[in-house]
Each structure stands twice: as C-alpha cells, then as structure tokens.
Specification:
Length: 174
Amino acid sequence: PGDAPATRSFDDHFLVFSTGGVSMGMNIVLMFMYQSIHGSLFLHVGLISAVFMLGLCLGSLASQAILSRAPATSWLVMPIGILLYAPLAAAVVFSPADLSQSAFIGGFLLAGALGGVFVPVAASRLNAASVPHEVAGAMIEWNDHLGGACGGLLTALVLLPIFGGAYTACALAF
C-alpha cells in the first residue's frame, strides 16, 4: 500500500518519457523519409514542426475529452493509443517510394497526435495519486523533454543509420 503511489508515479513518468521518445523518433523517421523523397526538408521544416505540434495538441485534447467524460477509462486510452502506432509504422514501412507531401502532413499530424494522447492520462493518474498539480506538471514536462531528447538521439545516431527508415519505424512501434 505504501509503495503503490511510487510505483504508479514511476509508471506514469516512464509512460511520458517513452512516448516522448517514440514520438520524436517517429518524427525524425518521417523527416528522413521526406528528405529522401522530396529533397527539401530545410525548406519545410517549420511547417513540418508546426503540423507535428498541432497533432500533439489535438491528441492531447482528444484524450482529455475522453478522460473528462469517463475518468475511469484511462486504462483503456493507453493501450488504444499504443496500438495505433502499429498502423503508422505499417504505413511508413509499406509506403510507396513517391509518397506525396499531403500524405507526409498526415503522417506528421498522426505521429504528433499519438504522442499527445498520453500526457492527460499521466496527469490524471498523477492527480489520482495526490501529486500536487505543479509537481505533476513539472515532472510530465521534464520526462517528455528528456524522452524526446533521448528518442531523437537514439533514432538519429543509431537506429536510422543502422536499420533505415522502415525497420526503425517498426522498432519505434514496438
């Protein structure tokens, strides 16, 4: 009983850390593919980042709407969000060699949305564990940034150079 909040807290922090890493990794895979196909990443990097962040916002809002209507569904939101990474990875793996810019916009939006789903879940769970809002917010922010940094480094320095885009997307979905 005394260990339950600490264990839950660790799980919630790892959830935000890992989804931050996977989201950033998937964003880098999509950027790599975009550059390979369209050759103009630097021209569109601001738009790509904005679309990804819009996805983060929309995913977070959707998750928050679900949790506000049915708070007990946090256990269901997480596996659904995780399972939706599989179709995104499959789309990356089986995408045609001439994928359109519109399709990439959808991919960046979806990758962001899937990353944003988990923040309200973690916040709700930390709130249920009686963690003060300021502390929970700071911890979620810290874990998300650290996860994104680690995921970005791992993807860019190890996974993409060794495995390429398709296998890296599969590893991130896993």
